[in-house]
Amino acid sequence: MTLMVLVRLAVFILGMYIVVTTLASAIRSFVLPRSAPDQISRAVFLTMRRIFGFRMRGKESYYERDAIMALYAPVSILSLLVFWMASVLFGFMLMFWAVGVPTWEQAFFESGSSLLTLGLAAVVGLPQQALAFAEALIGLILIALLIAYLPTMYQAFARREANVTMLEVRAGSPPSAVEALARSYRIGRLSDLSTLWVAWEVWFAELEESHTSLAPLIFFRSPRPDHHWVTAAGAILDMAAMVNAVVDVPHDPQADLCIRAGYIALRHISDFFGIPYNRNPSPDDPISIAREEFEEACSRLAAQGVPLKSDREQAWRDFAGWRVNYDTVLIALAGLTMAPVAPWSSDRSIIGFRPRFFVEQQGPGGAAQG
Question: pTM of the predicted model, to two decimals?
Fold first, then answer.
């Protein structure tokens, strides 16, 4: 074999590798019904995050930053499609040149014409015709996948936001566990919260599935700047933990299930984004909420007439034992998604937190009990 034949063979293999890698990325992102971190998606989203971060420089108002970040996920998804199409075009350009197209300019023209099904280039010979048909098919598949992908994503987004919006009625805006408990007491529903726990247990299960298999959803912001899925999750989890630990009402096992569903969902989302946390925390491990904040919350509830347990020391230990299961991941996700300030969640999020986006997912860990 001559040197030129070997070069063309190597170029053909390289082009095929680029196309196959691009298709594998699209399959992991659009087709595979489970979380599957992908390096191409990771690179595109990180690049767009840096661009949007530069755009937010000098913006001191949260509402200005929120308006900018509202475009981050949609623009990143479209940029990912553009990158895939460009990669396929480049890969087939290499293969067209390898099978005999005389110049790189002509190879680029034939590849672009085939990918966009323009029919502008006169493709001669069986190898070139086969490549043209294959590239046209791949281009149509990528476009069709995006068209099918977006409605699925926005349906999951709508289901998520329905509960987030309704929470304002119970917990205020921004949502607060203390406010939710006080309002529940005022309307006589404090001892009848089982339906609430069931609804949010289902919400957490759907959240885990959608925000790992459709990872860009984590960055889709609520229609209202003061609403956010992370702060809503934190308010519900803290509300259930407070009911179990502090409020003097009959114990409801459904609250336990809601908390467990919540911290499992937040942990699995954190696994997908490479957020570190203790998988087997001890009930007496430190949490981000100070004892003084807890006592202040109890005093506010008592002032509203909410019946509280007399043993405040045991109540603090029980609350901390529940909170330790989700404390780290809740705060980290609030920082990652730039959630609006809300009590006991985003008000103490890590500024500038940078997890290892889209790393290999690890298995779920255990948890401490309240």
Answer: 0.85
